[in-house]
Amino acid sequence: MKENIYDDPGFFAAYGKMARSEKGLPAAVEWHELRKMLPEFVDKRVLDLGCGYGWHCRHAVKNGARAVVGIDLSEKMIDKARQLTTDACVTYQLSAIEDFVAEAGSFDVVLSSLALHYVGSLDSVCRKVYHLLAPGGVFVFSVEHPVFTSADAREWIYDANGRKLHWPVDKYFEETKRRTNFLGACVTKYHRTIATYLNTLLEAGFSLSKIVEPVPDIKMLNENSELKNELRRPMMLLISARKAKAE
Predict the structure, then answer these.
(1) Which DSSP letter does residue 148 get?
(2) Long-range contacts made by residues 81-88, C-beta under 8 angstroms, separation at least 24?
(3) CB 135 within 8 A of CB 244
(4) Is there a smaller number of Cβ atoms within 10 Å at the N or the C end of the chain?
(5) Which residues partner with 236 through β-bridges?
(6) What is the pLDDT of residues 220-233, one digit of tens each?
(7) Domain contains 197
């Protein structure tokens, strides 16, 4: 049974209080960079792996997508996404990323936001996405950055006065499960090196288009002084890859 902490009532309630949950994409620190990596959506068929509240699904439709499918393992996430979505072009399915099945070439764009670090087999997912994409299709995703996921305790090292000294990096090359505290719960995530993310895509047949390690934009930094610490270490990794136009 795949772990699904998001259907725990307490955890889901805590998740709902996050800025990105309450305010959507503009409140996501990485959004100003991720949106620049997304392709044109006009008349495209789009799949969102781990769709959560469906923010990216609705963004795709708003920008001209012909049809969008969002999948998530969490019933609570799917229910919330359906509540927030009124456009009939968007459909949601309860499914783990690893279990989703569709015909080859069914989609032109596949997205995934902060979900693939919950998946144990990255290579099988990349091969699946390549199979699902039409020739020339685009795969854009974000994950927690390997610098952020390497240590078991994802917390700053503090001095005696409570000042943040540095972010620990440990066991970087041990690509294993990490049990970490997130929103007051113990959650399993998978640590991988940057090289593994990139090489797994290449081995699946993709060509790499862009890699970004985002930092908050100036507006966010001016509005929230705590975000200045996000300039001290990368928290997320954004990757765009493409399937060849002709096999």
Answers:
(1) H
(2) 81/51, 81/52, 81/53, 81/54, 81/57, 82/54, 84/53, 84/54, 84/58, 85/54, 85/57, 85/58, 87/58, 87/61
(3) yes
(4) N
(5) 144
(6) 999 888 889 999 99
(7) no
Q: Which tokens belong to 125?
A: 């997912």
| Residue 73: band (very low, low, confident or very high) from pLDDT cuts 50, 70, 90 | very high
Residue among 147, 139, 122 at smallest CA distance from 239: 139
Structure confidence by residue, pLDDT tens digits, 7-37: 888 888 988 988 899 898 999 999 999 999 9
| Of residues 76, 71, 66, the one with CA closest to residue 119 | 71
Asked if residue 36 is part of any domain, the answer here is yes
> Which is it for the CA torsion 118, 124, 149, 51, positive or negative?
negative
The domain of 61 spans 5-145+206-242
Is residue 163 in a domain? no
Here the contacts of 223-227 (C-beta below 8 Å, separation 24 or greater) are: 227/29
Structure tokens at 59: 């963004």
pLDDT surpasses 60 at 1: no
